[in-house]
Amino acid sequence: MPRLTRRRVTRLLLNAAALLLFVVTIFPIYWMVATGFKRGVDILSFEPKWLPFPATLDNFRTAIGKPFFTMDVVNSMIVVAVTVLVSLGLAFLAALAAARFQFRGRKALVVMLIVVQMVPLEALIIPIYLMLDRAGQTDRLAGIIVTYMTFVLPFSIWTLRGFIINIPMELEEAAMVDGCTRAGAFRRILFPLVAPGLVATAVFSFILVWNDYLIAYVLLQSPERQTLGIWLASFTTNHGTDWGGVMAGSTLYAIPVVVFFLLVQRRVVSGLTAGAVKG
Amino acid sequence: MSRRLRISAILAFAMALLLAACGGDEPSGSGGQQAQTGPRTLTIWLMEGSAPPQVVEAVNADFKTAHPNDTVKVQLQQWSNVTTKLDAAFAGSSPPDVMELGNTLVSKYGAAGALQDLSASKDQFENSATWLQSLTESCTVDGKLVCAPYLAGSRAVIYRKSMFEKAGISQTPTSMEELQTAAEKLMAANAGDKRFSAFYFPGKYWYAALPFIWDFGGDIAKQEGDQWRGALDSPESQQGLTTLKALVDCCSKADKSGDEAKQDQAFAQGHIAMIVANGWEKGVILDPKTGNPKLENDLAAFPLPSRNAGQTAPVFLGGSDLGIATKSKNQDLALDWVKLLANTKFQTQMATVGGVIPNSTTLLSLHQDDPYLSVFDSTAKNSRFTPTSPNWANVEAANILPDMLVSIFTGRASVADATKQASEQITTTLNTGS
Amino acid sequence: MRAVETRRRRLPSSPRRAPEAARQGARARRLRPLVPYGLLAPSLLVLAAVLGYPLYRLVVLSFQQYGLRELFAGTEGRFIGLRNYRAILGDTFFWTVVARTVVFAVVCVGLTMVLGTLVALLLRRLGKRMRLLVTAGLVAAWATPVLTAIAVWQWMFDFEFGVVNWLLTRLGVGDFVNHNWFDRPLEGFTVVVLVVVWGALPFVAVTLHAGLTQVPAELEEAARVDGGGAWQVFWNVTFPMLKPIFLLLTILSTIWDFKVFTQIWVMLNQRPGRDYYLLGIWSYSESFGVSNYGKGATIAVVMVALLMVITSFYVRQMLRAVEA
């Protein structure tokens, strides 16, 4: 009997901790969504209103109604999709090389990949701008796509390399003994096993690009070529902040990421551990 | 096989997107043709919120009549981090042809050679003979005119008439002493409201602190030869700040470390009697979404009084100017566009529709029938500017004045110590050779 | 310059190999030395093109006096050798900022890793439904974009209308009415750390939890049977197995938290006071605030050097693994 009670108490404590954790992680998100639905007078009230009733869609309407909102969405989608897909492809090839082959400069490559991640983005804005300017690529989506790719590639290559290293070569070699070509072995054996790693890397790239504001702000000029990061910043003017609009906008802004996450979450986790436990 | 198809499909999709990103873009800026006869594009950067859209459209329409083959692209920029964007744009090969610059930024960019010298074309501007003094000063770098005055804004005290009535204040203050008395009366009348501020003053609001400094005869910095010396630690400046501190201590519940960005929304909450504000801030207070439209008939304004009864304190004249980039390939078009926006017709519209102070003294009478706006126009006549040094923007970027005010109001430093430190910092920053 | 495949075992010549594959094999063997370089080429090209020159420029800038005039005219800055470096290293403010950045990073990384481990352990012990709930919360926090998170936390800690001030006053913790959290840097940094850790914790927790599932339960059972307490079991059995991921996550977190910029910049409305300067913010402010690009570049270079020193131990370990 005593042991049962102890287990029940432990269980209770654990569940309480879990509940607390849940509240702490989810409350800011609830607060954001709720504020998006509140009327202005309820938002700017000294006594917080816990539930957004009476609710209003005004904030969302303002957010969506901002000029060029649709273009911003399209541009963001294009930029993210191209950056993630192309960098994934390039990084996979490079990771293959770094993981499976011995060649001169391999050590230097790995060191370079890590060191490059230590450089603060903000320090490179002007030189990058000047370079793109010389190439006529400022105020072009291609310009910022290429810029984002350079920030995404080092981490992607490094991570994918870790995954590939942990997949034993014997599997591919067995396939080749059975008549597969090297490329075929890659495609049939390696690729499916590395898929979770690809997904994990894709998620990181997605987030890095989706999170960016400064680079897009400096490199893009025309209103029809802005991205959503800039749109989100536009709710704060020197006339004050439209908190309802910011929260509604933030909610909308977070949706694609959350959706993407929920779709791939299980893959991401399995991918991270497959490569990670062995370091 | 299906996997290969899938991969190929993804790659093809990516290529398609990449092509979509590259192709179909029109060339940006005006870097296109050099030929005089080909159609040209004029790129204009205006700051978000400064010009009413109708005015801009009207200017573009007039421009189109004069230049039927050329296109005008107006792009609105946001204030936050704008200097970063300007730095990058001016450094590149095709910056915008025309840009609106906050008047405190002009010196920095003019001295660095980003703005075209317009001295020779000054007479071509319709109002140039009667341009507002301090705006013109802000446009003058090394004796050269590098931009055209565009619009101005000055500050006065916006107050709640009903609160004044309730506290038994029949006349708006005409001296600083009367202001102090009125504020104390208001605090007493609203003693039950813990959040009540008679004179709401956010700590970092240096624009509103300047009148106190100037009125007592002090200044931010004085020029001695070609060197600047910080003057905030002079006895006069200190006196002004001490007077302000007394007002803040007794009668302001505003955030002593915050800035004035949210003061209009706070004012609309109903626990504030007076704020120091620009004319256009009334619109924010009455905004149906973030403010309280019901206050419309309860708002009025009076100029910040001087310590000498009957006079007003000198106010800081904020504003924007229009500059033309030296690297612009359409200097002539740019000049025409700027001349349009700066002329009487459109400045009148800016004043009447936009509620801003126009760039010419002759137009200051436009608001004389508006009891509210005329207050702000009158204060513009007694206005001063920040030191006209190319390094002034760096003083602003380093937050020297806001930080000084915060340490004074929070009590972390005495007025004497805070001003001494700030003056030293200003002296160093303004005199940095470039 | 021979590229050799790692861990290649000599296979006995197999008669089952189709002649087609054998021919392909021969051709492939001739091209093999070039394969890794070919695979690397596209990535390295992009990196060299867009990152190479700016990085080179950054280092060169740190040795120059370079302001707006040079930027706009496109001229070279004035070469001043090590003057920028000497000025910075001799400036007490620099050492303050370095100390502040290091402390900030240590606190963020420490909290993230410790709390992340605890959450991972908790997740392992929970029932299926509770685990799902907690994971859902973690994923939601993880997926929230940084700008969004900053906006929400800023709003929750708002001076006048923030829910935190209201809650703390209500709970009797003190009078938090109209309390500005960013008035005192210590409190301000508390908010920033909260935002950073809130966003970083889920990734660490979920990854460590997944790693934990790979730790064989029998080992832990055995240790417990041998009389080990909970802490001893964890430290002597569980943790060593987690060590590789743990190390990886710590290093990644260190690099990211050392470089924190956006959270502080945006939460303080683009105008942080000098008490809030971290290395990244100082570098940006020197470059774009006062247009001293040379000094800004110097600070950035020093920042990278510092990070390299701090993570050098792990990098060396990694290199050893590369050679294996």
Topology (elements, then pairings):
The complex is a heterotrimer of chains A (279), B (434) and C (324).
Chain A: H1 2-37, H2 40-43, H3 58-65, H4 69-100, E1 101-102, H5 106-116, H6 125-134, H7 141-165, H8 169-177, H9 182-211, H10 214-219, H11 228-233, E2 236-237, E3 240-241, H12 243-276
Antiparallel strand pairs in A: 2-3
Chain B: H1 2-22, E1 41-47, H2 53-66, E2 71-77, H3 82-91, E3 98-102, H4 106-111, H5 133-138, E4 140-141, E5 144-145, E6 147-153, E7 155-160, H6 161-166, H7 176-189, E8 197-200, H8 206-215, E9 221-224, E10 227-230, H9 235-251, H10 263-268, E11 272-278, H11 281-285, E12 299-302, E13 315-316, E14 318-324, H12 331-342, H13 344-354, H14 373-380, E15 383-384, H15 392-397, H16 400-409, H17 415-430
Parallel strand pairs in B: 1-2, 1-3, 8-11, 13-15
Antiparallel strand pairs in B: 3-14, 4-5, 6-14, 7-11, 7-12, 9-10
Helix pairs in contact in B: 2-12, 7-9, 8-9, 16-17
Chain C: E1 4-5, H1 19-31, H2 35-61, E2 64-65, H3 68-73, E3 78-79, H4 83-89, H5 92-125, H6 128-143, H7 146-156, H8 163-170, H9 185-212, H10 217-225, H11 230-258, H12 262-267, H13 279-289, H14 293-310, H15 312-323
Helix pairs in contact in C: 2-14, 5-9, 5-11, 6-9, 9-11, 10-11, 13-14
**Within the largest sheet of chain B, what's the order of strands?**
2-1-3-14-6
What coarse outline of chain C follows from CA principal-axis ratios? globular
SS-based class of chain C: mainly alpha
Content of β-strand of chain B: 15-25%
Count of discrete alpha- or pi-helical segments spanning 4 or more residues of chain B: 17
Percent helix of chain B, as a range, is 40-55%
